[in-house]
Amino acid sequence: MKSVFVTVGTTSFEELIATARSPPALQALQSRGYQKLVLQVGRGSLPQPSRCSALAVEAFRFKDSLAEDLQSADLVISHAGAGSCLETLEKGKPLIVVINDKLMDNHQLELAKQLHRDGCVLYCDCSTLVETLQSMDLSALKPFPPGQPEKFASFLDKVLGLQ
Question: I want to staple 108 with a disulfide (CB 3.0 to 4.6 A). Which of 59, 80, 88, 144 is the partner?
Fold first, then answer.
């Protein structure tokens, strides 16, 4: 069953959850062959079950780990938190990053723009999510390069005079 996982991390992003559940978004997902929508709502409100959707919709607040949900998803739609973005990309999943333009210091926009410039993600805000779902070409996304912690360790060794 082709599925979409929406995550807001530890925050509340009601607008993203509402937009992802909206009839136009559900229609766009269904037209792309998705059959299941899983919503991680964080501190936001758990949505009321909807029976009019052609997609199976599940929702929860938090889990100890989202690894299983990320692994089973065919598409991830996420807030622009660094942890959520990087964990998704490290699992090799296609990612749409949705900017919360209501944030005062919108550092998330900088991260989303850079990951988009690198060709790793699509990004939008809630007002353009449906359009993004309708026009997305996930095959154009590039794999996220794996981290190289040994380079950071070597840098620290030099800075601390251990090398």
Answer: 80
